[in-house]
Design goal:
alpha/beta, TIM Barrel, Arc Repressor Mutant, subunit A, 2 domains, 16 strands, 21% strand, globular, disordered N terminus, binds iron/sulfur cluster
């Protein structure tokens, strides 16, 4: 089923739209919640049976604008001289109203401003979006509100202003810790600017993260060791480290730039995991270390979220139905098998793997019914996966070949 509803309902009608009657406080840990639901003609979503439990719920806000295009980047982004921020934000508020009618009894446990470069969005607009969300939905007492920032801002006091606007977790995209590689990556900031921004982030926020890209073709393991030591010394609570890949359609691909040789990249990956483990940043996901990002856990665990903005998408349950959404306001129902495949792909990225009960709650299928059972037992026997009665996860032997494991399980 695919629907493209047009305008939001008036507030009074919206009250009746897919409302979850008698729904208690649906916090992250609540279970066994039964809810009623009404048919709603504006959304095309039909009346459903009660669901068994409720889940964490996040809102992703995509700000697609950047100062310039980095040559490795294959995300959707736009570079414009004048961005009509107010107009776009007002459109976002209408989209939020639309999705609110589908999810109104959920409690927001995380909000994430991603990009593009959301630190180019004026803090007053960020505050407006956060206030709008908090007027519409119930907000969890310990809600995480993250924003991705680049160090290339000319705006004085940006980080203090972002904190004042309601952001409580700041993720800083430094990408490299030397000027040669920043230049290679086409970043528009210098190392000195990155370090100043890092100081300001650490000064203004209690919860923070830093992103770097490694396995650059110009990088040796000894260079990376130094950068990693420097990264740890900065003292962020969370570190995201992505290996450089050369994606089709990027400037790097057009220039014929080749990625680092696979065995050198694997060595860097192993070194990185080991180093961070011994320096207080345990790996919890393929590319993520330290104090987990609550919002990103939603994706990996298969929880509910909506997405606002050009390349944002969502996954959310209304009763026992699962929906996928894309911009602008396109909603499609997913079958349990379609959602199950996504959950395998995402869940095995986590070091702790997939909780079988949670998997069933998310898609309605048992894990063993959702994958190829013969391949599963072979992969367990060969030591790539570890299975207990409650859980399934990749072993240290399986993690480096995760994509192949997933392909085998899902075929
Ligand atoms: S990497 Fe980030 S800053 Fe660079 S073009 Fe992509 S979205 Fe924009």
């Amino acid at each position: 089923m695919k629907t493209t509803p047009s305008e939001p309902l008036p507030a009074a009608d919206a009250k009746n739209a897919l409302s979850e009657e008698n729904a208690p406080d649906n916090t992250e840990h609540s279970t066994g919640v039964y809810m009623g639901v009404h048919e709603d003609t504006s959304t095309g979503l039909s009346k459903q049976l009660p669901a068994k439990r409720v889940f964490p719920f996040g809102i992703y806000i995509h700000w697609p604008f950047c100062k310039s295009k980095c040559p490795y980047c294959d995300f959707y982004k736009e570079v414009r001289k004048n961005v009509p921020q107010e107009e776009i934000v007002n459109g976002y508020l209408k989209d939020l109203d639309f999705y609110h009618r589908l999810t109104e009894t959920k409690t927001v446990t995380s909000i994430f401003f991603g990009g593009g470069t959301p630190s180019l969005l004026e803090p007053q607009h960020i505050e407006k979006i956060i206030n709008h969300i908090s007027k519409k939905w119930k907000i969890g007492t310990d809600v995480e509100i993250s924003l991705e920032a680049n160090p290339n801002t000319d705006r004085p006091n940006l980080f203090a202003d972002l904190h004042h606007a309601g952001i409580n977790r700041l993720s800083l995209g430094i990408q490299a810790l030397n000027d040669r590689d920043l230049k290679f990556l086409g970043r528009t900031h210098t190392l000195a600017q990155a370090l100043t921004a890092a100081d300001e982030v650490l000064h203004n926020f209690d919860n923070h993260s830093v992103d770097l890209i490694y396995a650059r073709p110009v990088q040796k393991l000894s260079d990376w060791e130094k950068e990693l030591a420097q990264t740890v010394k900065l003292g962020f609570r969370h570190i995201s480290l992505y290996q450089l890949t050369i994606e089709e359609g990027t400037v790097f691909a057009a220039k014929g730039i080749r990625p680092l040789a696979e065995n050198a990249a694997v060595k860097m990956y192993d070194f990185t995991n080991d180093y961070l483990h011994h320096h207080g940043y345990p790996q919890y996901e393929v590319s993520n270390y330290g104090f987990p990002c609550r919002h990103n856990l939603l994706y990996w665990q298969g929880d509910d979220y909506i997405g606002i903005g050009k390349s944002a998408h969502g996954r959310f349950r209304v009763k026992d139905k699962i929906y996928a959404s894309t911009h602008p306001r396109n909603i499609e129902e997913l079958t349990p098998a379609e959602r199950a495949e996504e959950l395998v792909i995402m869940g095995l990225r986590l070091n702790r793997g997939i909780d079988k009960q949670h998997f069933k709650d998310c898609c309605g299928l048992n894990f063993t019914d959702a994958v190829n059972p013969h391949r599963l037992s072979e992969l367990v026997k060969k030591g790539y996966l570890e299975e207990t009665s409650d859980n399934i996860c990749a072993t240290p032997k399986g993690f480096p070949v995760l994509n192949r494991l997933i392909e085998e399980l899902c075929c």
